[in-house]
Amino acid sequence: MSFIDGVLLRSSSPLPGASEALNLLHSNNIPFILLTNGGGKHESARVAELSKKLNVPLTEENFVQSHTPFRQLVEGSEDAEPLKDKTILVTGGDGDACRKVAEQYGFSKVVTPGDILMAYPTIWPFNQIFSDYYHKATRPLPLPVDLKNPSQSLKFDAIMIFNDPRDWALDTQVVLDLLLSEKGILGTYSPKNGDSSLPNNGWQQDSQPKLYFSNPDLFWATSHHMPRLGQGGFQASLEGVWNATTGGAKLDRTVIGKPHPATYKYAERVLNRYRAHLLGASTKKIPHLKRVFMVGDNPESDIRGANEFESAHGAEWTSVLVETGVYRSGTVPAYKPKVVVHDVLGAVKWALEKEGWVV
Questions:
Q1: Which residues contact 211 (CB under 8 A, 6 or more apart)?
Q2: What is the pTM of this model?
Q3: Could you say which architecture CATH assigns to the domain 2-66+258-354?
Q4: Where are the domains of the chain?
Q5: What is the pLDDT of residues 204-239, one digit of tens each?
């Protein structure tokens, strides 16, 4: 399993050895998947883009983005109600690209902060700066904000941070408004907020929308010579505002993406399905994976996640750190990998040699 940013690509340009490494796996029918904390586009678009850049056949079957697991929320699970026909707020990405991804996943009522701003400009007083940008990517709201008739007013059931927000200020304000609202109704303020007789002093105790983050990375590797803030930076910023507003109440949220176990569990399931596809069998008819080699560039997300993940099927996860992304050669990584190699080609060759291949 390999990550993308800092392993195969830096910003949008292929790294040396990336194409050769993937073609080595592909030509030998060795199952692999690509896992990234990036996103903002539908998997089909990103796969086509990567296939062209890296000159290797890729499919959605062996590709997982940070927000890919959000697909599971459409139909729900034992722990979460279906959100297919619920109103969700989607933030992040360019224009309304993430809205379109969410709709392709199956969510039918998707609203962006820009939609709200264009309908109610007073929600953020400094709206003029981005007005041209939002005019190009907004839609009418499915319901008005009608505080005189809350039952007919715009109500949200979930907040999903799909990708790095472009307008942190507006997104922070809208998300905060909903977390403080009464039952997710925009423009309201819950009477339970600050009630010391309730759990968490009443904060998020009034059926406010659930908050989901797809990527915890504080930094990521770009074309700049130093790592840049990622979605994890926005999450930390929002939490700081939340703490200042609530006096330090716990912010209830669900975070996926590396290094969180839910993402590795999902990735292992995808890898098993893809492996079965390559072998022309069902997942029930082939033995479970014995070992997964995880190649990443970020010790605090990639390496930590692989080291701490416990496979339900007993697969051994072996972490391999490359020097082409966030990690700086010669420094001591916060989470120790099994091995440090220069690049992804070196990582693939090391893994194959460990499995008895001659390369």
A1: 158, 159, 161, 175, 179, 251, 252, 253, 254
A2: 0.87
A3: 3-Layer(aba) Sandwich (3.40)
A4: 2-66+258-354, 90-253
A5: 999 999 999 999 988 887 888 888 899 999 999 999
